[in-house]
Design goal:
259 residues, alpha/beta, two-stranded antiparallel ribbon, 8 helices, 32% helix
């Protein structure tokens, strides 16, 4: 990928209407700003804290919706996997596969995703330095698959907060991979006593503008017209009507830096 890229969509595929509503609006914004758009949606949420958390509407149904959104909008799609056996199935429906941060060192998972020939987005673990991501990167590339990106999403700070190191983007880029900033998960407040991850969406813009100023090649943002009603990650998603303003500022900064 050469153009600035936005990976965006709802946290989870929660029905058969919302993904299209979100995708159409994000595509319009990206087209206006000259941004490459990849639609994101988790077909299944396998890493929730509580047993009663929303996990999905059914694997095949959600994957078919992902494929349909990509076909209607004419954009690539991406979803995350949690176990190696999922890779081959998911690859039939999406263009790219994402490796969750907590699983970024899982060798079998990385190799299975890479062997599909799809693009592989590896999220940096909250427990790893930027330099440590050279090893997951090498695992994917060992298969001959060079379509691999790295995504920063903050580091654990105590039990219930994340921090974003301003040097992380440039340090990840030094590894020679397309580097993305996850602007929404970076503002999470995990491990709360009620078992539902919190967050501070007011800081999404700050994270985004800082990242693009330090050379990010793209953003990852989960977004929803009404986050509080979303079935997954309601406290961290960006309200959809705020996306255009943030991206406009970000692209202005990028243009100034490359003038």
């Amino acid at each position: 990928m050469n153009k600035f890229t936005l990976i965006a969509g709802p946290c989870a595929i929660e029905d058969d209407k919302m993904p299209f509503i979100i995708g159409r609006e994000v595509k319009r914004i990206c087209d206006d700003l000259g941004i490459n758009y990849i639609f994101k949606g988790s077909y299944r949420k396998a890493n929730r804290s509580r047993l009663d958390s929303f996990t999905g509407i059914g694997d095949e149904k959600a994957l078919k919706i992902l494929k349909a959104v990509g076909e209607e909008l004419g954009v690539e799609t991406i979803t995350d996997i949690h176990e190696s056996h999922e890779a081959e199935m998911v690859a039939q429906y999406v263009d790219n596969i994402q490796i969750p941060a907590f699983l970024c060192r899982q060798t079998e998972l990385l190799l299975a995703a890479a062997k599909t020939g799809k693009g592989v987005n590896i999220k940096k673990g909250q427990f790893l330095s930027p330099e440590a991501m050279q090893f997951p990167l090498e695992k994917v590339r060992s298969t001959g698959n060079e379509k691999v990106w790295l995504t920063e999403r903050g580091n654990s700070f105590g039990y219930t907060d994340l921090i974003v190191d301003a040097t992380s983007i440039s340090r990840l880029k030094a590894l020679g991979a397309f580097t993305i900033m996850d602007c929404t998960h970076a503002v999470q407040k995990p491990n709360r006593t009620e078992g539902v991850t919190g967050g501070d969406p007011s800081m999404i813009e700050t994270v985004a503008l800082s990242a693009i100023a330090t050379g990010a090649d793209g953003f990852f943002m989960e977004t929803h017209p009404d986050p509080k009603t979303a079935k997954s990650d309601p406290h961290t998603m960006l309200q959809l009507d705020k996306l255009e303003g943030i991206l406009t500022k970000a692209m202005n900064i990028r243009k100034a830096l490359h003038a």
